[in-house]
Amino acid sequence: MKITSRHIEKDGSGRITIVPEEDEDMYHLYNLIEQGDRVRAAAVRRVQSESSTGSIESHRVRLNLTIEVVKTTFDATGSSAPPDPSAAAVAAASTSSAANEKEVSRSAAVGGAGGDGATLQVAGRVVEENPHVKMGAYHTLDLEVNRALTITKESWDAVHLERLGESTDVSQRAEVGAVVLGDGTAAVCLLTGHMTVVRQRIDVPIPRKRKGLPATAADKATARFYVQVYNAVVKLLQLPALRLVILASPGFTRDSVYDFLFEEATRRGDKILIGSEARRKFLKIHCSSPHVHSLMEVLRSPEVNAQLKDTKFAREGQLLERFMKQLASDEL
């Protein structure tokens, strides 16, 4: 996240202009923007006009609108597909137990079908005059990565400013990548201290091998699946910046994918996956299911904790684990 303009008065009121630069920034904005705030951003509005002949013409106009926020909607996957049931349950439990805390947990952010990235919609009433939109008209702003917006608050408190500081600190970026594997399926993820983003989902149907029949079709499908996983890992996981890449699966797919990654890197000459340093970043872990929500159990494993013991990611996980144990042991 990049701050391009900041003006806060002594009483805490003021405005900040921000340019989100990646998916996690949309998550931070979701937690920064509250009901009653004013948000100004680019929008596209359908406008009707009457021609000289009396006919009504409709066309789209690009403009900047300022709205007073009524509602915000965040989707970590950038997709309208339903999330994993377990993730939805965790999110619902979080909402009921902390009604005043507008926070998306890691569990709620995990799952769903990978889309084009995180999306954030802010809805409310237009509060500044515009030649194309009436005051008080209801509008929904679709906030996007790399497009500036201005947030105006009556009070920027310490929590808001801390969140803003975290979002602009490069050291808080993703340190962990993960690929959750099944039979012809994979979810390629980036994990930060705040959320899990599914960068891509891969699904290649693999025919079953049958006795007496050639295994050519199954072998070709498997090879195609491995190549798609390789391309996603190299393209989407920002390998040089990551501390750890987890390969997790219920069976032995993680082992065969691990071997293929380094064999294919040698064949292609991809330097980011060649050498002992690259191999040390990869960790093969068993998980109970090939779904993204099984990352929750993977992240609690001793092997992962040992690799990430000095990171904020691990410290926050340990705090959450202690809190849940304390909650379970306390008598209500």
UniProtKB/TrEMBL annotation:
Domain eRF1/Pelota-like N-terminal: 1-169
Gene Ontology CC terms, in alphabetical order: cytoplasm
Biological processes, Gene Ontology terms: nonfunctional rRNA decay; nuclear-transcribed mRNA catabolic process, no-go decay; nuclear-transcribed mRNA catabolic process, non-stop decay; ribosome disassembly; RNA surveillance
SMART domains: eRF1_1
Pfam family name, one: Pelota_N
Protein origin, superkingdom: Eukaryota
InterPro entries (alphabetical): eFR1_2_sf, eRF1_2, eRF1_Pelota-like_N, Pelota/DOM34_N, Pelota_N, TF_pelota
Record-given protein name: eRF1/Pelota-like N-terminal domain-containing protein
Name of the gene encoding the protein in the UniProt record: SSCI46680.1
